[in-house]
Design goal:
It is a single chain. The chain is elongated and about 85 Å long. A hairpin with a 7-residue loop joins β2 (91-97) and β3. 25% of the residues lie in helices and 13% in strands. Strands 2-3-5 form a three-stranded antiparallel β-sheet. Strands 1-4 form a two-stranded antiparallel sheet. By secondary structure, it is an alpha+beta fold.
Length: 179
């Protein structure tokens, strides 16, 4: 390719005035952005001194819980779909034959490693009976790795703790499973 090629369309450099040469429009544009951020409402909070507001808890993905049915039993039917769907492989279930006539199996052991979880919500999506849900609890802490491994009892206690503040999402989202 040569500079005098007729197929090349050359573009003239724009002529800048005095303000353009002094970067005045860019300077004013930058100051405008800074002033907008100074007067805009603040979105950052000083946690833990100030608790953040979660706008819609239904779309927040916090600590897991295992839901109970209307008889107070765990809703899980030990189908292993949540453990299969989990990309982080943080769910471990041991299913045994159910003593109740309405299901074949139930989880004898249900363990979630909260440190390994990436809170993607795939377990919640995969569950056919809406037994596992992510709550809006965000202040998950522990002093050891063992404290961050939630067993069935701990997951059911999260349900007891959050059932009044957060109804089961399946009902509010038009789910097919009651209880």
């Amino acid at each position: 390719m040569k500079p005098d090629d007729k197929n090349i369309q050359w573009v003239e450099e724009p002529k800048l005035g005095l303000a353009g040469r002094m970067y005045l429009p860019l300077f004013v544009q930058g100051l405008t952005t800074t002033v907008k951020h100074l007067v805009a409402p603040k979105v950052t909070v000083s946690y833990p001194d100030q608790e953040p507001e979660i706008g819609n808890p239904l779309i927040y993905r916090g600590v897991h819980r295992l839901n109970k049915d209307e008889d107070g039993r765990v809703k899980c039917v030990a189908c292993f779909l949540c453990a299969t769907a989990c990309p982080a492989h943080c769910i471990d279930i041991i299913g045994v034959e159910s003593p109740w006539p309405d299901r074949e199996k139930y989880p004898e052991s249900f363990v979630i490693d909260e440190l390994r979880c990436i809170y993607c919500g795939m377990c919640e999506e995969a569950c056919p009976v809406d037994a596992i849900e992510l709550t809006s609890l965000y202040n998950l802490t522990g002093r050891s790795r063992e404290e961050m491994i939630f067993d069935k009892e701990k997951l059911l206690s999260v349900y007891d703790m959050t059932k009044d503040q957060e109804a089961m999402k399946s009902r509010s989202l038009g789910g097919t499973v009651g209880g």
